[in-house]
Design a protein that fits this description.
Helix content of chain B: over 70%
Order of helices and strands of chain A: HHHHHHHHHHHHHHH
Largest interface: A-B, 51 and 47 residues
Number of strands of chain A: 0
Order of helices and strands of chain B: HHHHHHHHHHHH
Number of domains of chain B: 1
Shape of chain B: elongated
Distance between the termini of chain A: 14 Å
Oligomer: heterodimer
CATH architecture of chain B: Orthogonal Bundle
Number of helices of chain A: 15
Amino acid sequence: MGYGLLAFILKRIGYAVVSLIFLIVVLFAVINIILPSPIAKARIYVRNPHVPYSELQAIAREHGFYKPLYVQILDYIWNVLHGNLGMDPVYGVPETQLIMQYLPITLELVIPATILTVIIGIVMGAISASNRGNWKDLLVKGIYLTSWSSPSFFIATVILLIFAYDLGLFPSSGMVNPLLTPPPNVTGFPILNAIIAGDTTYLVSSIRHMVLPVVSIALVSFGVITRLARSSLIESLESDFSKLSLMKGKTKSQVTYGVALRNGSLPIVTLVALLFAQSIAGDVVVEDIFDYHGLGYYLLTTGIYQLDYVALLDITLIDGVLVIVANLIADILYAVLDPRVRIS
Amino acid sequence: MTETAKENKKDVKEEPTSGIKFYFHAIRRDKLGFLGLIIVLFFFGWSILEGALQLIGGYIHRESLGWALLPSDPLKPSLFNAFHPPALSWTYLLGANAEGESILSRIFYAMPRDALVSVVVVLLAVAVGMLIGVIAGYVGGIVDDLLMRLTDAILAFPAIILVIAVAEILKGNFNAVIVGLSLVWWPTYARLFRAQTLKIKEMDYITAAKLYSVSKVKFFFKYLVLNTIDPIIAYSALDFGNVILAYSTLAFFGIGVTVNIPELGEMASDGLSGLPLYWWWPIFPSLTILIIVLGFVLLGDRLQDIIQGRLA
């Protein structure tokens, strides 16, 4: 049995690796369609438009732009495997350094947001499943369909208007009160740093700035979970073990939230990966609206407005890796929880 | 339980289980689904009308034809009316932006582009996904493995980030946005078509068709595609909305936006600078997107119910 699980995991890891290689090839192909000549790529490294041609050639040679495409791809993969993501043409520092600076900030938003999404999603799903057909079910459906259909900037704007401007409960933008001195950077995660340094004022300020973006991301993406939780809970509520618990004298809510939820939440595990991807996507918009300087901000300001293709390549790669890893974990978790999956 | 049983019985009584008439009646039985249908029809109807006016106006060099049906010229600034709050006049029903342009006019002027993007992207995605999904599902083996890994690779991206990357590298004009969106949109369809193909692959009529040695093109379209397409129709109805959402997000970042052509997402992002005082500036364009997408979602949801009920 243990052998079967191991084989399953290895196969999934193999799939993930192949997907990643495809991902890199697609990205390179796209970049090469757009920036077909080595000189065009070299131009991004110099901001000065009057650079002599020979200098551009030198830059192109230095970065290996004259090599055939497959060699460039292999070189890139080789470098990535050695933890070298290339130099950023705009800032002139290693890409790893920039990503190490911005990624933790994004994760600080996306991880709590994903957890919150799952909680909201399951609770709403449970409410609607245990009230199937009546007005509560309809209300939940209305809420999640609306959230599903709204652009993420709409939800973020409304939240900003209500909670920051009208009620004044939370700050409207930024990551922390700019007057506070940040605690020493140990982990890269500002909140963890504050906890380690025991700086409560900084911690509270960071968390207060975090609330609205996190809630916005969660409200954008909880619909998928609600829908799945509802259908899976209905199935589980109609099964024999739920009926047995009802007959044993448990109350309806005990059965819904205790028995049925535990057995019905299995399919939701696989969705978490998808959700994570959605949160990252929603995060770009939310970071823009709340002026939060994470990976999305970096992607927009340098990657896009300055056509920094190295940053684009690396950020897309990292997002892809995050999602593929999340997917992998979900697959494995599912296989551990439900042995039937391993067979097929 | 009883409701679905009743519906199923009704379906049995009414002979036809496909065709436009069947779908129309089935949709009309559900109020929300019907509302969705009305929103979608209005959206496409208006887009065709307004789009045609704008095109003709462009050809005969009389751009004013483009806003003949609107309360005011959406592109004419009138600084006297800057930040005019929503009021009970057609022009300023939804207020005005910083340049004093009517937000209502701009919203209706912008709609045809959203319609065009959603139709083109969904059709392209269905076509590519159909080709890849049906081939992967039917041929199987190493072809299937490779095609599906490619599909996974693209699905692994947060779509919007890849679109931003592609559209922006492609110099960010309108066509680039369509290419970028189509590039990331097909994998879902490939998966759907593959799953459907696997389901029907071993059925008797496929074997029969093979025995009769039907021509390859006919086999592909008539026997494989036609019998896999139903669930995909329902999904694509929902997907029009997703494309519009993605497109507005791009416009929100200023990607694919042309000067002097209003865009819903772009209006929303411009309007952020007017918060909190001029709330109508970002809110109404975003709300318009929400309503349009909700129409597609309601319709798609209903279609999915109908098809599931029928296939079950």
